[in-house]
Amino acid sequence: MTTSFLTLESLSEKLDQLATFSAPGPGVTRLVYDEHWCAAHLWLQREARALGLAATCDAIGNLWLHDPALQPGARVIAVGSHLDSVTRGGRFDGAYGTIAALLLAAELRAQGAPVAAFVTCEEEGSRFPMALTGVRGLLGQLVPSECADKRDANGVRWADALQAAREKGCAAAAPPDGSPVPRVFTASRQLELHIEQGPVLESMGAKLGVVDTIAGYRRVRARLTGEARHAGTTPMDRRRDALAAAAEIVLATEALGIETGAPGVATAGGASAEPGLYNVVPGAAALLLEVRHTDAASLSRMEETLVERARAIASRRGVALELEVQAGEAATPLSAALADEAEAMAAGMAIPYRRMASGAGHDTMAFAQDGVPALMLFTPSRLGISHHPDELTKARDLWVAAAFARELLLAWAKSVA
Length: 417
Hints:
The chain is an alpha/beta fold. The chain has helices spanning 8-19, 35-50, 95-109, 133-138, 144-147, 158-167, 200-204, 242-260, 296-316, 336-348, 364-369, 395-416, and strands spanning 54-57, 63-66, 75-82, 115-120, 186-195, 208-214, 216-225, 229-230, 265-274, 280-281, 284-293, 320-329, 332-333, 353-358, 374-379. Strands 1, 2, 3, 4, 5, 6, 13, 14 and 15 form a nine-stranded mixed sheet that branches. The protein has a four-stranded antiparallel sheet with strand order 9-11-7-12, with helices on one face.
């Protein structure tokens, strides 16, 4: 009789355990290479071995949990997610896909399926100014020496943080300078389970999201420079108020998202002003602006429109404006064939589902961009809350999606055998 590793109880228990690896305070804070991340990483290694799996690190701390019989370089069906969190985030983002993958790899190994769980070291970009670093390394696209001098908010170098984690057993030896992270395995197909992080599935009463597209995004830092003058003695018509101009750009950003309509969104995620005093007209201000869309052409138009509107506002107000593109990802279609297969299977199993796009970025984007047939499955989020301590998905819903993934992976294993 085959042992079932994937049960509602085991899934819930291990998610509870993983959530304990966090900095003090509300929610979960587990930043790449910090002490809590390292403790969680080592715990996952122990859990994998207890389930009969091998645990193999790569050079930047990604983790593969797999059948010990699999040799380096083998082609596998990859299932997994990321280990890091945002600051004071929820306990399911990344963690659900990681724990589900661990249990799926253990269960499907017993059934002879070439399924390996991956756990990327970083996806969120919460500690260092880089996102999707882990999966880029997993796919052999990242050159560690090129990231070495990136620093966190405390001035710690990325290379130094990685080396400290390596000394704890959380990463393999570094490759030579100028060389990419060596691949451990090659993915023939890839699957990521994730909470939706939005309200759609819950509002529909659906239990499963079949994701066929992931939105792209552009992030722009705006720096506005006006004139700092005494607030009591400078007439309103003689001011070059950097914060007032920034406020107008914030509203223009919001208006752009509304005008574009779903699935487009536009956000001003941060604002600051100098000198920040009651009695001084702000002489400088900074904004963090982002646009997202699932269509590449629409995303480009949103970025162009945002830049045009910001420049027009700054010019009209007599304020200098500097715009710097900070980061971006292309809108990424996933495998339509795999989505069709999952959709047909969900219908056959009478699971209420919705075919949908993801507005948030995920590791799966990088797999798809690398040419790997890739798919995501979503499970409902209560009230759509995510990146917050109140993030919650019912245990039963988590298990339904994971149990569906088991059947889907078994079908994939037969078709790629």
